[in-house]
Write a structure and sequence with these properties.
single chain, alpha/beta, Rossmann fold, five-stranded parallel beta sheet, 12 strands
Length: 367
């Protein structure tokens, strides 16, 4: 497995540095000081030895590419579709790299590719990145991560925004991923999300769930939800889609059948989230989301991770890999802290009032 060399800075001592692989006499003079002045024989021998040692170290640094300021690495970023949550994760990743000294245009190229929700395109992007022999791949969301993992077993891969990395076949375990893959998971706290829904709607009996059955992350979320709802006597009513154009029809199919609708971190549905909002406002059905970025788009509430912070965490992991860490030995990480974002205005449009207790503990209340 290749691991790009970490960026290196010249020694701060006396401003010494190798320029273009050559060692300059004035650099050695600044480091050795009195050696170039008249000394006693004993002192001169010691100074001479020290100078030779320093010269050897500098030559070693130069031959090892110590001063590689002009060298650029390429990081391929493959994202399944554009929507606020995944876009935030991507920006967080890039910002973390830049904060670590990997600045685009100077020493790194970010090759960003969007599959626009098409799995065939995602596979083509993965193969293209491998063909270009990029130094590291950052795959955002389950489908693109699966495509990238299937495309290479050599290039380091940092996954992000993946609900069930083990179930999706990306890693052997969360503690020991194995191979060339590690990263972060956005696994939803379904139990706490359902608790929030029941607090806002104590009499909820039927809960709508719109998802793409072709996305492993959504299938995993559905299983988690069923495990929780059965304990509270709540029935989950499914509506499936195969592409974003079918989201509006799926939402309409739930009208009159459910007390509320919840949307998982399903890339297909979230990319067309406004279609669900339209139906819920027209039919006064409360809409909940599994990502906080969907609340400004019309959901009444979300208790979830901050995707920007998740992206930064993925970026920090990428930095460690670029500096020599082995991805297969790095446990898959997640964010422990959740954010509660609510929208009283959206709630009013959908026929419910948010309890004062919910408003008081919310991290953000949208006006």
């Amino acid at each position: 497995m290749r691991h790009p060399a970490a960026m290196r800075a010249g020694s701060s001592r006396a401003g010494v540095r190798s320029r273009n692989g050559q060692i300059h006499e004035k650099d050695i003079r600044g480091l050795t000081g009195p050696f170039f002045r008249d000394q006693s024989d004993g002192e001169e021998v010691m100074r001479t030895s020290r100078a030779v040692l320093c010269l050897g170290v500098l030559i070693g640094f130069a031959s090892a590419g110590w001063a590689t300021e002009g060298k650029k690495i390429t990081i391929g970023i493959s994202q399944i579709v554009e929507h606020p949550a995944l876009d935030a994760a991507r920006q967080g990743f890039i910002d973390a790299l830049q904060d670590a000294g990997y600045v685009e245009g100077r020493n790194v190229v970010f090759d960003v590719q969007i599959a626009q929700g098409n799995m065939a395109t995602a596979n083509s992007i993965a193969k293209a990145l491998v063909g270009r022999n990029v130094d590291l791949i950052h795959s955002i969301a389950t489908p693109t991560s699966q495509a990238c993992v299937n495309a290479t077993q050599k290039i380091p891969i940092v996954i992000s925004s993946v609900t069930d990395p083990v179930g999706a076949g990306l890693v052997k375990s969360l503690e020991q991923p194995g191979g060339n893959v590690t990263g972060t998971t956005d696994r939803s706290p379904v139990d706490r999300q359902l608790e929030l829904m029941r607090e806002i709607q104590p009499r909820i009996v039927k809960l709508g769930f719109i998802y793409n059955a072709g996305e492993d992350n959504s299938v995993s979320s559905l299983k988690q939800l069923r495990d929780e709802t059965v304990r509270h006597g709540i029935e989950v009513v499914e509506a499936t889609v195969s592409n974003s154009s079918g989201v509006l029809m799926a939402a309409r199919s739930l009208v009159g059948k459910v007390d509320a609708i919840t949307i998982p971190t399903d890339n297909t549905v979230v990319s067309a989230f406004e279609a669900v909002v339209k139906v819920c406002e027209e039919s006064r059905i409360p809409l909940y989301a599994a990502d906080i970025d969907s609340v400004p788009r019309g959901a009444i509430a979300a208790l979830a991770i901050d995707y920007y912070r998740l992206g930064r965490q993925s970026g920090d992991m990428a930095v460690r890999i670029l500096r020599g860490a082995q991805p297969g030995t790095m446990p898959v990480e997640t964010l422990k802290d959740l954010k509660l974002v609510v929208s009283p205005k959206a709630a009013e449009k959908m026929g419910v009032t948010l309890p004062d207790a919910v408003l008081k503990r919310a991290d953000k209340v949208l006006e």
